[in-house]
Amino acid sequence: MTGVTNLVGASLDALDTPSLIVDLDIMERNVARIVGACAAGGVGWRPHCKSHKSPDIARLQIAAGAIGITCAKLSEAEMLVDAGIKDILIANQIVGAIKIERLMRLRGRADIAVAVDGAENIVELARAAEASGVRLRVLIEVDTGTERAGVLSGEPVLALARIVGEYGSLHLAGLMTWEGHTTRIPDPDEKRSAIAQAVGAVVASAQLCRDAGIPIGIVSCGGTGTFETTAAIPGVTEIQAGGGIFGDVRYRTIYNVPVDYALTVLSTVTSRPAPTRIIADAGKKAMSTDAGVPFPLDVPEVERAGFSAEHAKVELKAPSAAPRVGERIRFVVGYADTTVHLHSEIFAARRGRVEHVWPIPAAARLR
């Protein structure tokens, strides 16, 4: 990192390519949009860090008003605790002796909550917590239609809540869901209705538990694809929208969320084999194409862009001499969540100059 940290204050022209760039002015606008929606709805913001995997950005989010951070991976939580962040939800099931041992060590250092959706895992966590002398917060994950992890809403939630209540080493902190199946609905009214139905199921499940004498404090949901609706639903206490701070092709064109493009990959034109073709040095190893196809900024009349392992190929609608070999172009990231971990740092820039270099710890990328 020493060489790249020396670039603070430098022009983006001083960066080698490919480099991952976040425009701070745009990111701050995106953060303000999410914070504003939370404030209007009276809910907390617990942003997911799986999109940025950066302790520096997590601190920025907390400074902007986040009540804590959401993680997808135990390794992300370990990274954040090392950075001094202590209120963390791991929105995933932590299973097996190796990971549970890590979790218990981490719980000794910070207030960690984890998702559960089955009795076997609940028992496994309870026994480990008791043996470690800690009390672990858990949130029951509810499947409200996405058909990924989670127990069905209603009575199955209540049954699982009662199992959690049998163990003094566990504290049932609340319920959570991800209404991801609603994100691709193109019609705004239909989308809002589907979100309300999905989130309504977890809110109703929380009330069912309360009516049975089981306190439920947290109802957590809402990603970038849904936050503007979920933040306003009565009964929701916090939302997890995280990737929207960057904005990307997926959120703008697939999820139809009006966040601005803040995250780009800076690339160098390495070949102009034809007047309508541009070859650059940022391929699939620099930016993912699985969930959204990157596209070049500041290149007019683009017909299409394609990517191989180490190359970007941009086809133009009409012949053009620009950009020339050696010039730089920026690609809007297709999907931040599957791009950031390909890099070792994010260059945070403002008006064309590097203001920060934020490392992406290798240990936080996978496990």
Topology:
Elements: H1 2-5, E1 19-23, H2 24-41, E2 44-45, H3 55-63, E3 69-71, H4 74-82, E4 87-90, H5 97-107, E5 111-116, H6 119-132, E6 136-143, E7 151-152, H7 155-164, E8 170-176, H8 188-211, E9 218-221, H9 227-230, E10 238-239, H10 249-254, E11 263-274, E12 277-280, E13 295-296, E14 302-307, E15 312-316, E16 328-332, E17 345-350, E18 353-359
Parallel strand pairs: 1-17, 2-10, 3-4, 4-5, 5-6, 6-7, 6-8, 8-9, 9-10
Antiparallel strand pairs: 1-11, 11-12, 11-16, 12-15, 13-16, 14-15, 17-18
Helix pairs in contact: 4-5, 5-6, 7-8
In words, what does this structure look like?
The protein is 30% helix and 25% strand. It is of the alpha/beta class and 367 residues long. Strands 1, 11, 12, 13, 14, 15, 16, 17 and 18 form a nine-stranded mixed β-sheet that branches. Strands 2, 3, 4, 5, 6, 7, 8, 9 and 10 form a nine-stranded parallel β-sheet that branches. 46% of the residues are buried.
Strand content: 15-25%
Principal-axes shape call: globular
Radius of gyration: 22 Å
Number of helices: 10
Spell out the CATH superfamily of the largest domain.
Alanine racemase
Any descriptors?
367 residues, alpha/beta, Lyase, Ornithine Decarboxylase, Chain A, domain 1, TIM Barrel, 2 domains, nine-stranded mixed beta sheet, nine-stranded parallel beta sheet, 18 strands
